[in-house]
Automatic annotation (TrEMBL):
The chain crosses the membrane at residues 14-32, 38-60. Keywords: Membrane, Transmembrane, Transmembrane helix. The keyword Transmembrane applies. This is Glucan phosphoethanolaminetransferase (Alkaline phosphatase superfamily).
Length: 68
């Protein structure tokens, strides 16, 4: 795949990294919250924020025009 064939490949890669990383942090925060609630919230909330940023980037990517 060349850069011309898929110009938004880097953005798409970061979208999925942010979504999966954020959801992983959320799950880790929930699991940690059972023994230490403060630490669990400290891990889960940024994870949710990162996942939401990934979902917002999906919307942004859908609005970008592909160049021929």
């Amino acid at each position: 795949m060349t850069q011309q064939a898929k110009p938004h490949a880097t953005l798409e890669k970061w979208i999925w990294i942010l979504i999966y990383g954020g959801l992983f942090a959320l799950i880790l925060g929930i699991a940690t919250g059972r023994t230490d609630p403060a630490l669990g919230w400290t891990i889960a909330v940024p994870g949710v924020v990162v996942a939401v940023i990934g979902f917002i980037l999906i919307f942004v990517r859908s609005r970008l025009k592909d160049q021929p």
